[in-house]
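Hi R.,

Here's the chain you asked about this morning:
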Amino acid sequence: MNAPVTLRPPDEELTLYEVAYLGFRHRQVARTALAAMALSGRLEAKDEVLTITDPVPRDDIEAEVVKVMGLAPRRESWERMHRFDKSAVINAVGDRLAGQGLIGSPTLHGAAERARGHLVGILNLAWILGAVATGLAVPEPGSCLVPIGATLLLLVVGMWRLNPEPYRSSSLTDAGPAALKDHEARHPCWAPRSHDDLSDEDAVLLGIVARRGSFRDRLVPLDRAVDRPVSHRMTEDIREAPGLGGGI
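And the predicted structure, written out as tokens:
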């Protein structure tokens, strides 16, 4: 499950998207790109409507943002934010960090999760077929022992293979938080480089978005456009409550 690792040179600076990924993963990388586009005037957020005014991306992450959000003015853009969670383009940022030992590979993690899902399906099918075979064998004394034994053996082996440890591979290693801490110590008022000629104030604001995940000041309208409103969160919580058709 582990990709080959080449330790990151100590003098190599984290990029804007790498800082965002180490702190908050996929959606924060997308939010950082959205913030960069908004601060440079290439994206407008007003009255909870998001409009990309300049669709020419400056990098692959911005291209992904344009692809997911679309070119037409969009209300309730927060409904599309989950699409970034499995973005191969954003995975590439994580894979670079994984190659330097800062996290586990998100691409390998995703492949493992898919394999785990397939295995769960096979185990469910084995349980059903085992139950059917046992039912058919009941009329014959002792004949049900074979399907029961085979089913139990398959389930035991399958549950052992479902050990969750390999599926945690995209978590931070000890080196990840250390790299972030070192970055913040060296850049307490970070003004990262961007593709556009941002003012010093806006550059610092962009750095705050990447490091802290918060839209503030002139980015508040963007926050309202891409963050799920509290009213919707409360509605979802009610729907998921026990006794109301939700989980337990």
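The CA atoms of residues 29 and 224 lie 17 Å apart.

Let me know if you need anything else.
M.
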